[in-house]
Design brief:
Length: 158
């Protein structure tokens, strides 16, 4: 049987309930989902690459067919190395669509075999973004209901 594998890339700084929603939707469509954490040092993440991977590992440990790896190269090169030709991206709003469409075209330009599938999170998770969570954390607010339980617990212990 030919296994269909998708790659869900992002900075995941930190992973949110919106990300988890997209992962679970992707898993319904694909046999396996690789959550690919970009190093993204140019974005100056709040959490280290190792911590972001750790957050995701804790979040997906119960999900069959989902695993996490980090990368620091062009996404199309990482996907080719992993023999994955489908990228999953989440869309929350029209502004996401414009950016994601541009990235999808760029990835396809770099590798004609790459396809991008866009998934929307459920309405209750549509407003959640890592940047919103980071602002709340920075100002000592409580974003914990926006995060998976395992990540909430890990952040509370930091």
């Amino acid at each position: 049987m030919n296994k269909k594998i998708a790659i869900y890339p992002g900075t995941f700084d930190p992973i949110t309930n919106g990300h988890l929603d997209v992962i679970m939707r992707a898993r319904k469509i694909f046999d396996k989902v690789l959550v690919a954490v970009a190093e993204s040092s140019d974005k100056k993440p709040m959490f280290s690459l190792e911590k972001r991977v750790e957050f995701i590992q804790a979040t997906i440990k119960e999900l069959d067919g989902v695993w996490v790896e980090s990368f620091d190269c062009l996404l199309v090169d990482f996907a080719k190395k992993k023999n994955v030709m489908t990228i999953v991206r989440g869309l929350r709003a029209v502004s996401d669509f414009e950016y994601e469409l541009q990235m999808g075209y760029a990835n396809n330009f770099l590798n004609k075999e790459i396809d991008t599938v866009y998934l929307m999170p459920s309405l209750k998770n549509a407003f959640i973004s890592s940047s919103v969570v980071r602002v709340i954390l920075k100002h000592k607010g409580d974003p914990l209901s926006l995060l998976p339980k395992s990540v909430r617990e890990m952040i509370e212990c930091m």
